[in-house]
From TrEMBL:
Pfam family for this entry, one: Cytochrom_C
Keyword Heme: yes
Signal peptide per UniProt: none
Source organism: Rhodovulum sulfidophilum (Rhodobacter sulfidophilus)
Residues annotated as domain Cytochrome c: 90-198, 200-296
Keywords: Electron transport, Heme, Iron, Metal-binding, Transport
Gene Ontology MF annotations: electron transfer activity; heme binding; metal ion binding
Name assigned to this protein: Cytochrome C
Residues covered by region (Disordered): 1-20
PROSITE patterns reported in the protein's UniProt record: CYTC
Keyword flag Transport: yes
Length: 299
């Protein structure tokens, strides 16, 4: 098995570790990996250890694999074992997020691991379940650079997004695992709760964010068929289009790249966004993402 993984990754170069990846990766690890491998302070169950081969304690073995090899295992699984492939093979970026977490795993003590999996302290009343709050915060607006702020989004958009994850129409191994077991009624209730939360403040503005909107946001690029972002995302009452104001710039840029590359999918307007983003250049993606991040979400 080691030889096959090494051969499959010959010549591969791992990208730089993603920033702010520990929290969302820890949430997935707790539900998708720890039930077999265990985690800091949480041994794997005896029934799993009776498997042949037994799932290893990852903290003790990750140092024997390169980043590219770990990514290969995460994305493709291991044949003839209980190790499955990543739930959505199109999301190689999520695989690299897990690799970054695995690199940090040997240094995580049980307390730090528990803080990453769920926000510390007792949850206030009328807040998200712990499984959601671990990434998005108790009220859907404290997830970090790679996680969207869901508080105050339209209920219709949130419901469509959760349904798209559940049906496999929106690419994400992390979210597909998160919605597993949720009924349509559960998803509707989550959407309603998140929509009722007040939106968060703007991400701290930069010089780009404080300036006038980039041309791509205000006018689009008609010669290549790219419409203005604000034609949909700046219109009050546009229930199917998410609010972009105050979202983390890294998250927005990542989603635009997924749309551009034809990977993301989503609700009923996903095809429109895939077409709109197909002509975006890298600098346009960065500029518009930072600008939206610096705007305060509107009521």
């Amino acid at each position: 098995m080691r030889s096959s993984v090494r051969t499959a990754t010959l010549g591969e170069t791992a990208p730089p570790p993603p920033t702010d990846a520990l929290r969302p990766a820890a949430g997935h690890f707790a539900t998708g990996c720890a039930p077999c491998h265990g985690g800091p302070g949480i041994p794997g169950p005896p029934s799993v250890q009776a498997m042949l081969p037994a799932p290893p304690d990852l903290a003790s073995v990750v140092g024997t694999w390169s980043d590219a090899e770990l990514h290969r295992i995460v994305m493709h699984g291991v044949r003839f074992t209980g190790m499955p492939a990543w739930p959505d093979p199109a999301r190689e970026d999520e695989g690299w997020m897990i690799v970054a977490f695995l690199r940090a795993l040997p240094d995580l003590d049980p307390r730090r691991y528990a803080e990453l999996v769920a926000p510390p302290g007792a949850p206030p009343e009328d807040t998200l379940p712990a499984a959601c709050a671990g990434c998005h915060g108790w009220t859907g607006r404290d997830g970090g650079a790679r996680v969207p702020r869901l508080a105050g989004q339209s209920e219709a958009y949130l419901r469509a997004s959760l349904d798209a994850y559940a049906w496999g129409a929106r690419a994400s191994g992390v979210m597909r695992q998160a919605v597993t077991g949720l009924s349509a009624e559960d998803r509707a209730a989550l959407a309603g709760m998140l929509a009722a939360f007040p939106p968060g403040d703007a991400v701290p503005a930069t010089t780009i964010a404080a300036a006038r909107p980039p041309t791509i946001a205000s006018h689009g690029r008609p010669e290549t068929g790219v419409p203005a972002c604000l034609s949909c995302h700046g219109r009050p009452g546009q229930a199917g289009a998410p609010r972009l104001e105050g979202q983390p710039a890294d998250y927005l840029a990542g989603q635009l790249r997924l749309f551009r590359d034809g990977v993301r999918g989503g609700g009923p307007y996903a095809g429109l966004m895939t077409q709109a983003a197909s002509g975006l250049e890298g600098d346009e993606i960065e500029a518009v993402s930072v600008w939206f991040a610096g705007r305060a979400a509107r009521d």
